[in-house]
Amino acid sequence: MSRIVYVNGDYLPEEEAKVSVFDRGFLMADGVYEVTSVLGGKILDFDGHAARLSRSLGELQMDAPCSDEELLAMFRELVARNEIEDGMVYLQVTRGNPGDRDFAFPPAGTAPTIVAFTQNKPGLAENPVAKTGIKVISIPDIRWGRRDIKTVQLLYPSMGKMMAKAAGADDAWMVEDGAVTEGTSNNAYIVKDGVIITRQLSEDILHGITRAAVLKFAAEAQMKIEERPFTIEEAQGADEAFITSASAFVMPVIEIDGTAIGSGTVGPVATRLREIYLAESLATAI
Ligand code: PDD
User: Fold this and answer.
1) All structural domains of the chain
2) Does 150 participate in catalysis according to the annotation?
């Protein structure tokens, strides 16, 4: 069965799903995206992803292509048509196709391009890597200054993952002015003496939907949280480290730049947060 992809109102086999070469997303990376997880055929944290999409669009003066209700119906339709139990829905909205290449934004009324597709990941929540953890390297953060907008400009994060791979690691944490901003496609945390430390929200990092949920659940579980920058050296001296994202949930980090974190194995705080996040998110999945 061919994957069914959503393109501007149509559900098409992936071979027939096409956008213009003049699309602003293709020519200018002028578009935003969301990755939302599906577990047991249900969508996790939909409201959070829909709210962040609206915010990203608003920050770029792009109109919302549809209502949240229409978006949810479309996600559900894609999940059903592709028989997804566990996986992701990828959504991209671009400033559309003005019919030519021009730096100026297209005239008002130019229709946005909306594309969405599913990714099938059976057993996503039971990822065995969560039991062993990942290794990260540090790289300079040379991205643009509005990382709070979830744009499709992913060249540097992509390069960062390749640099990690070349170094025998799994991912990279980006560093700016001496402090960790975030992972290439995830938010970064350390744990010291029971306190969860993660950089505060600003234009420097993406406002992770998983981050918001995990910090809420951690606070409800009476865990201590400090939202502040931290250095690679502090992280290397921490008891634990981990990342969060819609597709990785809570994933332990056991090594940074070749230095083992704590015991060098997956720690109790990350393990507990992963369990809480999965249980709570599943309970509210729609
Ligand atoms: N990435 N920071 C960056 C730079 C990201 O790209 C992501 C998500 C996150 C975590 O956000 P959330 O918890 O809302 O997924 C933080 C997605 C998963 C991706 O690009 O595939």
Assistant:
1) 4-124 (3.30.470.10), 129-284 (3.20.10.10)
2) yes
